[in-house]
C-alpha cells in the first residue's frame, strides 16, 4: 500500500525553491529523484501540482491550494518529531537570560547554582539590567522582571515571593532630621534616588493610600543607577532611599537601616521568569523552566 504522505516533503521543497535541482540539493537527492517522487504524488492526487517548462517551474492553482493546506501541517509534524527527539537528548548550549538588578532571590546564586548542577551541559549568560526591551529582538531566551512590566504575549512563571517596597534611612539620619509620617513629608528630606541612565528622570516613589496608588516625585540630593551605592549612602546617613524590602532586609536586621512609611507600601506580585510563546521551546529553556517550577514547589 502506497503511503499517502509520500512525496509531500519533495513537493514542499520544489514549491519553495521553484527549481528541481535546488530542491534536490536541499533534500540530498538527485534532480531525477525529485521529479519521480513529485510525479508519483501527482498521479495519486490525479492533478498536476507543478507547471514545468524548459525555463521555469511554477505552481498550478491546485498546487497553490495544496501548498497552503500542507505547509502548516508539515511544520507541526516536524515540531512534534523534534520534541520527541528532545525527550532522549540532554539539554545543552548557551542560555541567555536578562535579569532585573533587584531580583534578589533569583540572583542570590542558590537557584542558578542548583540549575547548573542539574544541567551541566548548559552554559548561562546572564545580563543584569533594568532597561525594558524586547528580549526576542535582543537575542535573549528569557528574562526575569516584575510581573507588571512583562508583555502580555509572554509566558511567565513566578520566581519569588510577594514583594514590597519601602523607604529606609539610618538611625543617625532620623535622629538628625526626624522621621516622615506621610509620603508628602519626603519633600522636606534629603533623598537618595535611582535612575537607570543619565538621560532619564529619577524614579518616582510609589505608594498606596485608601486603596489608591500615587507617586511622589522626590528631588534627590543624590541620584545613581546603582542600588549598592544607594544603600551605602543611606547607611552613612546621607538621606532616605527607596526600594525593595528584600534588598534592604540584611541592613534592617542589623539595625543599619530603619524601614519608613510601611503603612503606605502594601505587598504586590513579585518577579517572574518570562519567555516567548512558541510551539516548540528550545530544550535548554524548557530545562530552566522545569527546574524553576520544581524549585518553587519545594
UniProtKB/TrEMBL annotation:
InterPro entries: LysR-type_TF_proteobact-type, LysR_HTH_N, LysR_subst-bd, WH-like_DNA-bd_sf, WH_DNA-bd_sf
Gene Ontology MF terms: DNA binding; DNA-binding transcription factor activity
HTH lysR-type domain ranges (all copies): 3-60
UniProtKB keywords: DNA-binding, Transcription, Transcription regulation
Family from the record: Belongs to the LysR transcriptional regulatory family.
Function: Transcriptional regulator of the ttuABCDE tartrate utilization operon.
Identification of the protein by name: HTH-type transcriptional regulator TtuA
Taxonomic lineage from the root: Bacteria, Pseudomonadati, Pseudomonadota, Alphaproteobacteria, Hyphomicrobiales
Amino acid at each position: 500500500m502506497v503511503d499517502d504522505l509520500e512525496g509531500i516533503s519533495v513537493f514542499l521543497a520544489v514549491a519553495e525553491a521553484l527549481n528541481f535541482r535546488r530542491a534536490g540539493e536541499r533534500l540530498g537527492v538527485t534532480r531525477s529523484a525529485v521529479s519521480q517522487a513529485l510525479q508519483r504524488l501527482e498521479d495519486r492526487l490525479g492533478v498536476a501540482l507543478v507547471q514545468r517548462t524548459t525555463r521555469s517551474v511554477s505552481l498550478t492553482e491546485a498546487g497553490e491550494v495544496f501548498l497552503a493546506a500542507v505547509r502548516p501541517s508539515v511544520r507541526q509534524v516536524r515540531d512534534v518529531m523534534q520534541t520527541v527527539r528532545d525527550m532522549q537528548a540532554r539539554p545543552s548550549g548557551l542560555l541567555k537570560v536578562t535579569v532585573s538588578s533587584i531580583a534578589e532571590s533569583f540572583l542570590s546564586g542558590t537557584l542558578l547554582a542548583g540549575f547548573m548542577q542539574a544541567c551541566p551541559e548548559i552554559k548561562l549568560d546572564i545580563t543584569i539590567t533594568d532597561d525594558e526591551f524586547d528580549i526576542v529582538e535582543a537575542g535573549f531566551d528569557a528574562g526575569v522582571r516584575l510581573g507588571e512590566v512583562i508583555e502580555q504575549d509572554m509566558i511567565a512563571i513566578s520566581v519569588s515571593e510577594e514583594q514590597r517596597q519601602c523607604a529606609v534611612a539610618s538611625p543617625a539620619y532620623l535622629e538628625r532630621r526626624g522621621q516622615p509620617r506621610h509620603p508628602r513629608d519626603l519633600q522636606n528630606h534629603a533623598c537618595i534616588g535611582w535612575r537607570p541612565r543619565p538621560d532619564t528622570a529619577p524614579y518616582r516613589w510609589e505608594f498606596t493610600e485608601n486603596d489608591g496608588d500615587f507617586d511622589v516625585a522626590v528631588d534627590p540630593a543624590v541620584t545613581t543607577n546603582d542600588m549598592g551605592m544607594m544603600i551605602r549612602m543611606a547607611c552613612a546617613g546621607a538621606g532616605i532611599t527607596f526600594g525593595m524590602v528584600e534588598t534592604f532586609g540584611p541592613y534592617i536586621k542589623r539595625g543599619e537601616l530603619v524601614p519608613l512609611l510601611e503603612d503606605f507600601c502594601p505587598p504586590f506580585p513579585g518577579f517572574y521568569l518570562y519567555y516567548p510563546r512558541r510551539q516548540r521551546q528550545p530544550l535548554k529553556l524548557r530545562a530552566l523552566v522545569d527546574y524553576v517550577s520544581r524549585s518553587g514547589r519545594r
